Amino acid sequence: MSFSLSKLRKSISEIDYTHYGWVIVAVGAIAQMIGSAIRMAFGIIIDPLVEEFSWDPKSIGIAYAIMSIVTAFSSPVAGYASTIIGARKTMYIGLLLFLIGMVWTALASSILEFYISYGIIFGFAQSMFLVPVIPAVAVWFKTRLGLATGLIIGMWSLGPALVIQIMGIMLDAVGWQTTFIVSGVVGTAIMVVALHFFRNTPSDKNLLPYGAKDIDKTKESSDDKSNNFSLNLQNVIYKTNAFWSLMNIHFLGCVGHAVILIGLVPLMTSKGISYTDSVFCLTLIMVVSMTTRFLTPILGDGINPKTIMFLAFLGQGLFVIPWAFTESKWMFYLVGILWSIPYGGEGTLFPIMNRKYYGFFPMDTTYGWQILAASLGMALGGFIPGLVFEVTGGYEFAIWISAFFSCFGAIVILTLETTKKVLSPSFDNLQ
Amino acid sequence: MVITSKTNTKSPLKGLFLFFLSFIFSMIVLIYFFAWDSSNKINQNKDYQESWLEEGSLFICPFH
Questions:
Q1: Is B33 close to A408, i.e. CB distance below 8 A?
Q2: Cβ pair A320, A374 in contact under 8 A
Q3: What ipTM, to 2 d.p.?
Q4: Is the Cβ pair B8, A239 closer than 8 Å?
């Protein structure tokens, strides 16, 4: 134990924080925080829209569904764009769409206009803005990818928490339209400054990726991941079981936790627990899961990502089951803390798995397909609790469905090849 | 040293099969609950006009 701790301490002390890759991580983290505003701001504008336009919440909810579907299907496009024109330009396109979407949504006066501005424009903005981030960071880190992605993925929890608080305060003070316009302009300004420091690859800055040795320099320049190389490699990746299984696993995991994230509060209130206490349970899950979101990629990078991913899926599947029988608020909290540990770690290992299977490669398109599967899983999982409640009058069935999808994901992980071997053949033939 | 596996020379049949299986499971869940919902609505109101989705799910689901 002391040996492991001293090894960990030594490993941390050896990190070179002066490498430019950490600037890329910081830009990625800011992009995650601002991008999350797109999705998370939706909850706080429903009531103002109902008040101002008398639209019913169900019709307003359709905009969110459109946005999720557009994000899902445009994610591979965003990944492809990032491969062809680079992450920086793709993120600039996303930023422009983000600004148009924020301002147009604030000025929308009909439901159709709202569907276009929030549903379609934001849907595209979200994928263009968020899909290139992790693959771009992966190109900058030959080692320590786990720490780099852990820092960014941690923002998936922290970002929304901060953004919602700020937007909530602004909403009370200046109204929802001004909040949207100001957030759009300020968010865009921050990102323009941040993207100024962003570089697609270390060679753009005349540097080596973090952890690359000088000896790799000749190889790097001869490899110089050209578009042709990337597209040929992508064709090889499509022919591996791991590509389809990782997409499948991301889908199954997202169905598993989306059911809980959408259905937990209604499940608790249906058992007589107050709304405030139920929301607190969800907040508790978000806070605890932040820890494992950060730690899991680091552990996976250092140990065995397949085993850790399997345990996370199995935990996400099994720890939900007590909720089907629980009546007490405290048991909900206790199970919530237990469940949030595997839940936080479930979705964070995909960049590490991509690296282990396909080596040091531009993973934009592969990651885009994985985000497509994840978004579809979120859409299906978000739909299930409402449907189940409509027919059964309760949410217990939804809990079992969540458990089934997560456990099936764990089974699919067991069918994956070992991560100790790179699956691709000699990349020399791909130029 | 990077160790390379030869597994990618085969077609990704296993991956595609499991992907298809997940799709089927998802469809089963949706069809089952849609059909359940539709049969509840029809039982409550005999004149209920089913949508194509409800009609389709009732036709496919063996339990409703």
A1: no
A2: no
A3: 0.85
A4: yes
